[in-house]
């Protein structure tokens, strides 16, 4: 089913919103009609917003007893046909990992907003961090794929939430809005559109819900209540959902298709922005809130005569290693500033070939300043 244009159901025009409120409005605009969650700083404002706004729009809100129940209820709601989401942070994400794997293996569209805080463990609940990048991709066991988008503004907290729903529904995968506390609690002006494009999941009656002829295909998704003989299991299954836990061929083909349905579409999924890259000798690779500081540092460096550019990653997962390889061909070095100990740095190094990569890390619960990035660039001259 292609994208269709709909009237934005939330108030359009210039607004002054927090990032968390913008994410909640983006969810409603995308058609979310179920939210199951448990409050946790710094994401709680999303839950508060949904508790007020979903019921008047015909949706349902449920505060669950913990994060395990939250994501489990979201998976269940999705199989009834509702676009469904939850939001969490740090320890809540850890608790959701088993069901995240269940969602990936059962090809259940769900959206998770992770407003990252300083970890590990309970860490600093009110402070910023960006240490969950690997956890959202590798936290559950086995081989699977997710989509993760990294907003750098309140505007993108809205627009990328809509995109996360569209990708989740289209690909039948868990999709993350991988935000940070600084963006979730940031307040700034946003311009919400009068209309937007949304993707409603594909459903063809009587087609198998867990398999298709293409090795990277995305099957039709029925819902409970439509008269299909629907079986949903986290065990290895055939295209009709029957358990096939003893068949090596079933498991091999299923795991490969679940991965390839995302990886074969990387060119369509992965998004980025480039600033001053045409003549850049040094390239800052940044994402999320840190990219704001990086852009300011790049502009200051340019005024000082340094040929620097910024590559802002919007899509984190799947990771666009081809993009890094292309940019590396014209660069003398990369700088990767991160509010963790170098999670994307390792991905950039693996794709950069012989191009040197410098890591700038900070895990003190504060955002990285433009001055820190500028100083690191100066050391690379």
Can you summarize this structure?
With 381 residues, this protein is of the alpha/beta class.
What does the secondary structure layout of this molecule look like, with pairings?
Layout: E1 4-7, E2 13-18, H1 19-30, E3 32-37, H2 44-53, E4 60-63, H3 67-79, E5 83-88, H4 90-95, H5 97-105, E6 110-118, E7 124-128, H6 133-138, E8 147-149, H7 154-171, E9 174-180, H8 181-184, E10 187-192, E11 195-198, H9 248-263, H10 266-269, E12 272-275, E13 282-287, H11 290-303, E14 308-313, E15 315-317, H12 321-328, E16 333-338, H13 343-352, E17 357-361, H14 370-379
Parallel strand pairs: 3-4, 3-5, 5-6, 6-9, 8-9, 13-14, 13-16, 16-17
Antiparallel strand pairs: 1-11, 2-10, 6-7, 8-15, 12-14
Structure, explained:
- The protein has 381 residues and is an alpha/beta fold.
- It has helices spanning 19-30, 44-53, 67-79, 90-95, 97-105, 133-138, 154-171, 181-184, 248-263, 266-269, 290-303, 321-328, 343-352, 370-379, and strands at 4-7, 13-18, 32-37, 60-63, 83-88, 110-118, 124-128, 147-149, 174-180, 187-192, 195-198, 272-275, 282-287, 308-313, 315-317, 333-338, 357-361.
- Strands 3, 4, 5, 6, 7, 8, 9 and 15 form an eight-stranded mixed sheet that branches. The chain has a five-stranded mixed sheet with strand order 12-14-13-16-17, with helices on both faces.
- Strand 16 (333-338), helix 13 and strand 17 form a beta-alpha-beta unit.
- Helix 3 runs parallel beside helix 5 (97-105) and helix 12 (321-328) crosses helix 13.
- The longest helix has 18 residues, at 154-171.
- One of its GO terms (molecular function) is oxidoreductase activity.
- Residues 25-247 form the Pyruvate flavodoxin/ferredoxin oxidoreductase pyrimidine binding domain.
- Keywords: Oxidoreductase.
- InterPro entries: 2-oxoacid_oxidoreductase (IPR052368), PFOR_II (IPR033412), Pyrv_Fd/Flavodoxin_OxRdtase_N (IPR002880), THDP-binding (IPR029061), Transketo_C/PFOR_II (IPR009014).
- Residues 280-372 form the Pyruvate:ferredoxin oxidoreductase core domain.
